[in-house]
């Protein structure tokens, strides 16, 4: 995984709404989560969610058992400040996802928009998959979004992996099956267009 200091610098030096992956609302992710039909008290973890609006959107939609994991303390602090008093309703975890200690078979939904594609080393991807699949209960869901096969080749000064549906679902194939896939064209705050690939996977 990328060095923690890199991400602390990114989040400490730039406003959340100036980051290329910023969304005012995480509409696509929220729709995919709703489509799982997981109950509103189901456990959901948002990986790399420090600068994301998803936690706020999920609280507003009535979901009540939420975790946010991010490698950056600055990102988590910004998210807590943005949520104000509602931040106390969320479990915050500062950790590198490839080394995170998570409760086994705890989560109904694992959500990741734009973390997995930074894992360019096979060992890091294997560590991520192992932790994700161990943390999601049997029958639970993983929603993973990365740059699509025609997406950017780098982000925030770092190289990234790009995926089509077959390649992304293959990374998790030992423990999951592909339920649904779709693409999204994301417009960055600077006006550039980025293509994302979403895969909804179900844990065996």
Topology of this protein?
Layout: H1 4-13, H2 27-35, E1 43-47, H3 54-61, E2 65-70, H4 73-83, E3 90-94, E4 107-113, H5 122-135, E5 136-147, E6 154-155, E7 158-159, H6 165-171, E8 176-187, E9 193-203
Parallel strand pairs: 1-2, 1-4, 2-3, 4-5
Antiparallel strand pairs: 5-9, 6-7, 8-9
Plain-language structure description:
- This protein is α/β, with parallel strands linked by helices and 204 residues long.
- The protein has a domain of 141 residues: 3-Layer(aba) Sandwich (Rossmann fold), CATH 3.40.50.
- Helices cover 29% and strands 30% of the residues.
- The strands form 2 sheets. A 7-stranded mixed β-sheet has the order 3-2-1-4-5-9-8, with helices on both faces.
- Strand 4, helix 5 and strand 5 form a beta-alpha-beta unit.
- The chain is globular, with a radius of gyration of 15 Å.
- 39% of the residues are buried.
């Amino acid at each position: 995984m990328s060095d923690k200091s890199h991400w602390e610098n990114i989040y400490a030096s730039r406003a959340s709404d100036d980051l290329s992956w910023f969304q005012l609302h995480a509409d696509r992710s929220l729709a995919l989560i709703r489509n799982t039909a997981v109950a509103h008290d189901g456990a959901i973890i948002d990986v790399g969610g420090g600068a994301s609006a998803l936690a706020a959107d999920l609280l507003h939609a009535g979901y009540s058992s939420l975790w946010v994991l991010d490698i950056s303390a600055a990102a988590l602090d910004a998210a807590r400040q943005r949520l104000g008093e509602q931040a106390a309703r969320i479990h915050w975890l500062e950790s590198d996802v490839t080394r995170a200690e998570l409760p086994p078979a705890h989560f109904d939904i694992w959500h990741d928009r734009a973390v997995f594609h930074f894992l360019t080393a096979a060992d890091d991807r294997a560590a991520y998959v192992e932790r994700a699949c161990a943390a999601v209960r049997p029958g639970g869901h993983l929603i993973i979004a990365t740059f699509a096969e025609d997406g950017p080749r780098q982000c925030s000064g770092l190289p990234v992996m790009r995926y089509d549906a077959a390649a992304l679902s293959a990374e998790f194939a030992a423990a999951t099956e592909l339920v649904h896939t779709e693409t999204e064209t994301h417009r960055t705050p600077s006006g550039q267009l980025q293509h994302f690939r979403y895969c909804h996977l179900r844990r065996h």
